[in-house]
Amino acid sequence: MHHLSHGGGEMEEKENTLENYAEIVSKIDSLIERFERENLLDSSEVEKQQRSEVFFLDKPGEILFYETSSLEGGLLIEEKKSDNRKKKTTTKAKRKTKTITEETKKIKEKTEEKRFGWKNLGSRRIVYDDNLKEYVYQVIEPELTEEEEKLKSKLIDLFRLQVDVDVTGMDEEGKIKELEKILNRLIEENNIDISEESKDKIFYYLMQEFVGYGKIDILMRDDGIEDISCDGVGIPIFIYHRDYESIRTNIVFENEEEIDSFVIKLAQICGKQLSVYEPIVDGKLPDGSRLQTTLAKTVTQSSTFTIRRFRENPLTFIDLMNNNTLSIDMVAYFWMIIEYGTSILFCGGTASGKTTTLNALSFFIPPSSKIVSIEDTREINLPHENWIAGTTRAGFTTSETHKTGKDIDMFDLIKAALRQRPRVIIVGEVRGKEAYTLFQAMATGHLSYSTIHASDMQTLIQRLESPPISLPRSLLTSLDVVVFLNAVQMTDGKVRRRVTSVVEIVKQDPETGRIISVTPFRWISPVDDRFEYSGGSVILDRIRRERGWSVEQLNQELENRKKVLRWLQKHNIRTYRELGKIVAEYKKDPEMVLRRIKDG
Q: Which residues of the chain have pLDDT under 50?
């Protein structure tokens, strides 16, 4: 250890201090260069963090400098206070460089490893790839020896010879237990000598093969994944992750035979046949996920598939608040106007969160209301009991030109829904003539919620008035609220979903034909990332007048609902069943709910 102290004269003291300071800076710079050469520091962000964390230099009094020894050394810079001689330590002496590696790893590997599959032998992690300069989703699975591969193939062949296997009506857990029983019997009957470790590894892959989704099984079980996309042979499968957006995985189909067999199997799981005669299949997987797949050498160069995941436990309004998709003021506002009875259209681009937000805010529909939902593929998931979920259906057919049954499209389902006297109609997405019927339903008093692709009010009006929708502008006033959502890039480079504006339709100007609207809520820029309330809600004022409230009473009611929302957020109550129950209780007896949250 070198002890650097003050000299006798003032000039000598300053010169020594400056020399020592320069020496320290020089040693720091050389150490950082060595770290960079060893790939311990490889980004400006990490370097900045390490400089500020490890090396603290102020106006030095007495400086203690602990030298490093090769790459296993560490730095300690202390400043002795002249008055009380206490030391301020910024790092520990002899700090190991592995600590820096661990700090780097925290930045590079931001998510914990999750485990999946038979006895949790499979796992995934999301890491930052220094070569690609991007995040990569890594699937890690047990490696089989050559002998274990042979045993796996043998057990697959033996299992397929079984003719008495019936798993009809069983859930996944039941199927796994039945498969385990059969495989153990096959091992015993065929005198297969195998260790428990090898058996578990082989069972891991057999469970994927016969119960799961094979190569993409872990992707199908990760709740963070929204979309899975395979573009062909030799190309990594890409996913859309709710925290990392679009990232590649380490899963690749190696040859045409493998991917062709896989997409045919996916189609069969959906109850469809994929062939040269019918090379495009749209279907629904057992978990509700939406599949679109093509067969090679027909409409695409290689076989492809895209899976839009269905969330069994959907994001709720508490999740959206936690993610800052919308503010607590906005949630209280939607709670009020949806309970009161309004029709809302959710607009935005692809993957902007339209359906997710529609589903989350639909929790505020009064529990006794009859709801009919209509979708191409089911995505809406509500806690309401009085709810009919409808999905479109293609005719029973082997091709587009040989149909053996009638297509049931959204237009048919909306017409059928109107005969069922629903209080609320929810349509997953409007694209064509069904939009006209939906707006007619609004005009006749049915509350309606739907989504449409449109980025702003002008684009929305053009889309609705143009073919194939061709909606008269006079019908637009049947709509109460338009919610615009966007996937916006923040200052940290990440893409986040935000409700960028909430627009209330007031009326149509009889002279100009223009739609008059107000915007009570607006999102303010990626820099501020906050929501602004203008206070000009026509709907809230209508509710106030109809209920005979003063402005103070309206504001108090909104504040009471925000108290409930804060309590739910604080206690991490976020599942759709729990929230549905709280909303229903508040509708019946708000004072009771407020007393409960006041008591803790």
A: 1-18, 21, 38-109, 398-403
Half-sphere exposure of 33 (CA within 13 A, CB side): 6
Query: Could you tell me the two tokens for 106?
Result: 């925290």
- Asked whether 587 and 339 are in contact (CB, 8 A), the reply is yes
Residue 542 DSSP SS3: helix
pLDDT in tens, 66-76: 333 333 333 33
| CA–CA distance, 186 with 174 (Å, rounded to integer) | 19
Residue in this structure with the two tokens 């060893």, named with its chain if needed:
38
In the chain, count H helices and then E strands.
19, 24
Longest dimension (CA), the chain: 104
DSSP H helical ranges for 190-226 = 196-210, 217-221
User: Which architecture, in CATH terms, is 317-536?
Assistant: 3-Layer(aba) Sandwich (3.40)
Q: What share of the chain is helix, strand, coil (3-state, %, to 5)?
A: 40, 20, 35
Question: 223 with 208: CB under 8 angstroms?
Answer: no
- Please check whether residue 387 is in contact with residue 422, taking contact to mean a CB–CB distance below 8 angstroms: no
Contacts of 120 (CB under 8 A, 6+ apart): none
Q: What is the pTM of this model?
A: 0.71
Could you read off the pLDDT of 117-138 as tens digits, one per residue? 888 899 999 998 888 889 999 9
Amino acid type, 90: T
- Cβ–Cβ < 8 Å for 292, 281: yes
Between CA 143 and CA 151 the distance in angstroms is: 14
Q: Where are the domains of the chain?
A: 2-107, 118-308, 317-536
Residue 508 CB: number of other CB atoms within 10 A? 16
- Asked if the 118-308 domain carries CATH number 3.30.450.380, the reply is yes
Place of tokens 């040693």: 27
